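User: For a benchmark we're assembling, each entry needs the component sequences followed by a predicted structure for the full assembly. Here are entry 17's components. Please fill in the structure.
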Amino acid sequence: MISIQGVTKTYGRKVAVDNLSLEIASGEFFAVLGPNGAGKTTTIKMLAGLLRPNSGKLLVGGVDVQTDPIGAKKVSAYVPDQPFLYDKLSGIEFMNFIADLYGVDGAGRDKEIDRLVELFGMKDFVRELTEAYSHGMKQRLVLAATLLHKPKVIMVDEPLVGLDPHTARLVKQVFREQAQGGTSIFMSTHVLSVAEDFADRIGIMLQGKIVALGKMDDLRRQAQLEGKLEDVFFKITEGAVNPYE
Amino acid sequence: MSDVAALASLKWHELRNRASLFAQQSRFKIAVVAVFSAAFWVTLFQLFYSGMSFLQKTALQYNFSGLIGAMFYIFFFALTVMLTFSNAIIGYSSYFKSKETGFLLASPVRAESVFLYKFVESLGFSSWAFLFLGTPLMAAYGKIFDVSWTFYPGAVVFLGAFMFIPAGLGAVIAMVVTVYMPRTRRGLVVGAVFTAILAVLIAVSRLMIVHGAQSVDLKLVSEVFESTRFSRNPLLPSYWLSKGILELGDRRFSNSFFFLSLIASNVLFLVCVAHSMSAGLMLRGWHVSQGLRSQKRYAGRGGVDRFVSGLLFFVDRNVRLIVAKDLKSFFRDPVQWSQFLIFFGLLAIYFLNLRTFAYEDRDIFWKNLIAQMNLLATSLTLATFASRFIYPQLSLEGKRFWVIGMAPMEREKILFGKLALSFMCSLLISETLIALSSIMLKTPPTLAILHSVALFGICLGLSGLAVGLGAIYPNFQEDNPSKIVSGFGGTLNLVMSLMFVLVVLGAQAVPCFYYFGRWALSGDQFRWIIVASMTGIALISLVACLVPMSMGLRSIKELEI
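Assistant: Structure for entry 17:
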């Protein structure tokens, strides 16, 4: 469902993503971990069509992101770490706008909006302007809007930052359910427990490369360490990161 | 629903919500905006009317009927150049830097639809002032020449249609430069500014063809007419606009309609070209601009810190730190300083070329008149500068306000820092420009000193107004300075700044015209008038600075973030 084939991205002399290749299957929940500056966000932005790779190929839902960007966007959804919202639109207006953009029409549209409003617990504030929303409310709205067009692929960058425990649990559940329904999830996160509990596979990025990839057991084997993901992560990235940098 | 329809519906909902929010504001606020805007429009009308009446009188005196027409051609030519580059710069940040563009490009909207949507937005941002300035000019022209009523709506249609030409050109420039020109952000804007200045220099160099030191007013008038011939080139869009409006005023409706059609067809062509180009260049431009990163490394303390320490040696150290931080942020954002450069660069080029017209050899009446005009242009530019760059300074602290808000220093110092920065920068720039004007015109020392003193007061008052009102009406939610400026406080600041400038210049102009004009006064009488005028300027400037500053200080102390 997601295919990254020999992708390299540079900013001037700095190599952000270095000849990266990765395949993510349909219905797979993939979590990518890595220290700051490892290339996670750059990879997600390339998948979303917001950055162009210097070389390599990216397929989302079987569609080439570079040759058919609109086609790729139609079957995918991207949730950035700091999502953009229109301050002067209400939540319900924003959802309707997204439905229009993605061509979600027909009788089921209003019902689906209502269902998502209910699911994300937005009934009380969805008719207020988004400028009055807290971070968690904004994040719930963005996620609800993301699911409107039933994407085959969801790319999400740090979805849990700043969320209260209830919202965080809701977000995790929703992604899990989406993956069970056949949607591929590509999630970048620093919350190791989420990756450990929810992801089917985990990739650890360092300096633009995937240095470890697989299920938890595979990672443990690679790190030659039994234990939690946190220990495995530190073992694999040991020496490559200066925490005081 | 098509993507264009979805975007149009988005804009409609946004506008509707904004309007309903505006309607919920206090009636007093709305009334203040309405009254000030109307008063400003009327003042502009009066200024244009007086200026044009004077020109028309002079023209009739020497049987030179085309003078106001010549002024139209040069005025709209200059405005077209400015608007084109203003559209290119605003377009660049709107098409390739805004978060909204990123959001829209990540959705299945065609790049050309995103372009169209952002094009209309930047057209509005960069061209509203064109209509606001253009309509009183048209009204004044209409009154002087006793035109038919059809002239007024017709002129608005002309101005409205014409706005799309510089907007379209600016959009094409922004896309081409982003994709094909220098690969760094700084290089990009440097290229744009360089091209703008080059274009103006070429235009100005054409002025130098005509040169002379005649002493008769008629010669001056005919020289101006001759030397601005380039602006009457029939291939220029500004010519179509000026000619169309003049024909409309002369009741030659079919000729006027021809020029309107010419503008309309070129607008359609240009927008089609820009739209087609955007299909290929919009996404590429976004990729290029997002892939740029400054490779430059900065030292912990550098030239700016030393410069600020020297310039503001008399203020508190913490205040200097804030000023240095603001200056660094300003000079590292090319979109900011390039607008500043265009503002004052064009004025400097104009002043440097004053001798082209040999004004320095004319009688004192003309010298004084030109010097007054230069002072007016410099002061109005300063007012715009203060509204555009100084007023939003505190709001731009935005979500970062906790950094200085939590620092172990009194919050008042933040405002004093911004006041000191604004005052010193505007004083340095404007006094240099006016000194340049005085030297080029060879004005008498008394006049040069008067102008210098008046500018001192203007810098102080404008800085106090911008900083004070910026603290009274902060907007910490917005990152875009253009949007901060277009709010209630920004509008109030702009209107009050312009009125303040007009009052001070009026107070300064009265003795100058009496003494240097054609109403000679004795030395004693002049001295008394000068003392009264300077005292008046000092008082007005102090009030303009201190009242908003003290209100701003109170506001920032009580500010809850």
